[in-house]
Amino acid sequence: VGLANPAARRLATNRVLEKGIKLLELRKPELALILRKRFVEKVKVTPLSHQLHISSDTLKRRQRVGLRVLTEVLLEQEIEQRNNQVTQWFGRLESPTYSELFGVKELTERVAKQLMTPQRKEVVMLTGLGGIGKTSLANHVTRQVLPHFLYEAVEWLSIHEPPAPNQPIKDRYQWLVRQLVRQILPQISSTVRPEEQVNRLRHFLKHTPMLIVIDNLELKADTSFLLDNLVSLSTPRKFFLTSRTQPIGLSGVLMHTLNELSFSDAVTLVRHHGAELGLHDLEEASDEAIRPIYQAVGGNPFALKLVVGLSQIRSLPLVLRDLQAKGAAKLFNKIFWQAWRALSEPAQKLLTIMPLSGKDGVTDTQLEQDEIVDQEHLWAALNELVSYSLIEVRGTVWERCYYIHYLTELFLRSEILR
User: Fold this and answer.
1) pLDDT of 91-102, one tens digit each?
2) Residue 267: in which H helix or E strand, if any?
3) Residue 104 backbone phi and psi in degrees, to 5
């Protein structure tokens, strides 16, 4: 903010150049000396050439070389700073749960362009059915946008627990504002009145180019009410939302619907996921051999991955037969029931405690400390859950964390834990 002042910009520039010259001294001390004498101490060419016992032409030539090398040093520092900043931003997003996305290249480019165009509407929204890949696409697009440095900050807010339908809409909106304030302005006390929280948030966003991603809006009334309030906040920020519902007739919002995969993209996904699970029969299967999967579950990426996971234990024709025999009205429940019945008892026990992990997931150390599954069966049970796409693995090789998919949690709460 202070760089809007010319004097402040000049001071900041001088500090960057000074740091660059100090770094140059470590590589080419003689060139750094010339640049410091010429441009910091303001020594003219002739006196300096006498001091260094070289001709004026040699001094000028070395000065040009020094400026070129200094430029290279500063560029290296710029790239390093940018990479560090992008890494920090990525750390604020949810860890990717995908190795590759299919069938969304054009949509990715379109949404990214809108997020990178300041003059466009301030709210970009992605809607679609559960399991269609909204969160993965939002994550992917955000990672495409941030390295362009159009924003000074990013926040990702994921709504893991849907609000009670009978709760007043205003209360749910204020809850969402509190979550945003907690992440964006943690210095504000939770005891501050809701109206004041909104005012402070509006003031901050007005002066800070920021990308805010709100994932997993569920209730239609919530989405409409939220959008009405978000578009009233001031630029230069943008909101990127995902929701199962698509509000109609709202100005200031760019809407996109994520549809099911085409047959060709579904085939590619099935082969790719089969390869990830070591199912070479599926990896090398013909289009026609995969077509029955598409006919049974359509192009929902999560459903396709679940069916592929089920085929590790049961033959694929039997999996598809059961799905088709029961109709398509409750597709996910049927898939989850098949997966549930295919699990060993330790895996079932382990899955039932996953909803307790919350949005932060559970680490492998925490799993070992939990006594619901004994150590002898813990990792075999976890491998089962991962192979059926019921558990997502995130983190790094140094620290793994496990998350339950939102649809899986809904199934457990409605069918098993009740």
Assistant:
1) 888 888 788 899
2) helix 263-276
3) -125, 15
